[in-house]
Amino acid sequence: MLEIPDQFKEKFTRLLGEAAAADLFAALRQPSKKAYRINTLKEGRVSYSQEKPVPGIPHAYYGEVSGKDPEWTSGLVYSQDPAAMFPAQAIPVQPGDRVLDLCAAPGGKSTALGQKLAGQGVLVANEISPSRAKILRENLERWGVTNAVVTNADSASLSARFPCFFDAILVDAPCSGEGMFRKSEDAIKYWSQENVDLCADRQKEILTEAVKMLKPGGYLLYSTCTFSPEEDEEIVSWLMDEYGFKVLPIEATAQAAAGRPEWGNGAVSLENCARFWPQDGVGEGQFVACLKAAGENAQAFASVKKGREKKEKKKGKGSKNRLERPSKEEAGYISEAIAGFNWPESLATWPSQVLKSQDHVFVPALDPAQLKGIKILNNGLELGLLKKKRFEPSHQLAEVLGQVTQERVVDLDERDYERYLHGESLQVASGLKGFVLVSSRGLVFSFGKLSGKGQLKNYYPKGLRQ
């Protein structure tokens, strides 16, 4: 049985009262809920049950998915805690916006934001941990997002590059993780009031940098997976008092409880925050606040931005690190390798945008000059790699091309699909030759290369093989 820390029980009995606290403690001892979202950027049929929709989240359902199924490897579904789906749903994002997911790994919220943008505008998805940033990139790649920049940086480094830049910023902040008690033994093991206070200080540090990157009148979505007021209503109150943010109403479900003004600065608008308690039946614990910046927000940073741009313009003269366009010969190799595939409408002009960096060919989502000094894992769509007198298309491109109907496809049965995931080459019956898309149950998940004798060479990435 889950052992809840005594100090935690005392704290929330004091905050909630004995009856409500008892409901919370009982819920924390129940099994956690699993759910998944369907990727509307892609076409395909999901074999999982859709009998129990997650209330308030379009195309989301309760149920468990497998990382070995074609639905997962093709990026048609994403497994996510149902309550954790609400931050990306609550932030006002439209196609064409500039959006930042500041603490983005493993990528559940980033994939949802990329889906909202529908290939227009730009999504910067950042993660400070290198190992978690790699997972973030893999999830966005599988989801088929073409306009994302995946960065591995701290918030201060980003704010120096992007003052007053974003229309919307999502900060799902590192927290004490009280909402994860029934999913993670470590969350219980490391819980203490001292850690709650430490997390609150860290959240202010991160948000201080986030505010610098938000446009006047922009939206800031702040969320945690914890219950403590020190990390929730008190942080929102600090944003209101320090920076003049307004707390906007959130269209959530009937199961979401309102924020508690008495746990913050007393402002009635704190009721606009949404609290998801385990006993409410949606999912794990989640706190969500949608804030709007004042119209004069970040004017203090305008001079910083102007000064930085002027300095970089002068410094950038005669730079030896400029990216190149592929040569005419290289463009021929690229065209030959990927001829015959249908492209999403958002990438119709890719030939005029393509750049090359150390033989990597890509369509950038942001001008690489804007990203100088930041560790970049991915900028837009990686088309593939130039090799000696040939071109090898990327796994990301396969996942993107899976968004539209294709003719150059080899569809595998269940047995061959499992073999392909293991990294085996296959013998198939097909009249095609050269690079083809590989699918199972009609869901594209990889590239392969067919010889004239029907030998399908395996191009599924080694790091993803099962």
SS-based structural class?
A: alpha+beta
Beta-strand share of residues:
15-25%
- What does the average pLDDT come to? 93
The CATH superfamily of the largest domain is Vaccinia Virus protein VP39
Number of helices: 15
Q: How far apart, in Å, are the first and last alpha carbons?
A: 33 Å
Q: What is the CATH architecture term of the largest domain?
A: 3-Layer(aba) Sandwich
Domain SAM-dependent MTase RsmB/NOP-type: 12-294
InterPro entries: Methyltr_RsmF_N, MeTrfase_RsmB-F_NOP2_cat, MeTrfase_RsmB-F_NOP2_dom, Nol1_Nop2_Fmu_2, RCMT, RsmB/NOL1/NOP2-like_CS, RsmF_methylt_CI, SAM-dependent_MTases_sf
Region (Disordered): 304-327
Organism: Lactobacillus nasalidis
Description:
This protein is α+β, with helices and mostly antiparallel strands and 466 residues long. The chain has two domains: 6-292, Rossmann fold (3-Layer(aba) Sandwich), CATH 3.40.50; 406-466, Roll (Archaeosine Trna-guanine Transglycosylase, Chain: A, domain 4). It is built from 15 helices and 22 strands. It has helices at residues 6-16, 18-28, 70-73, 86-90, 108-117, 130-143, 155-161, 185-189, 193-213, 233-243, 302-315, 328-337, 350-353, 395-401, 414-422; strands spanning 35-38, 60-62, 77-79, 98-101, 122-126, 148-151, 166-172, 214-224, 246-248, 257-258, 274-276, 286-292, 355-357, 360-363, 376-379, 381-387, 390-393, 409-412, 426-427, 434-440, 443-450, 455-458. The strands form four sheets. Strands 4, 5, 6, 7, 8, 9, 10, 11, 12 and 15 form a ten-stranded mixed sheet that branches. A five-stranded mixed sheet has the order 18-20-21-22-19. Strands 13-14-16-17 form a four-stranded antiparallel sheet. Helix 1 (6-16) packs across helix 2 (18-28) and helix 9 runs parallel beside helix 10 (233-243). The radius of gyration is 24 Å and the shape is globular. Mean pLDDT is 93; it is low at 297-321. Residues 304-327 are annotated as: Disordered.
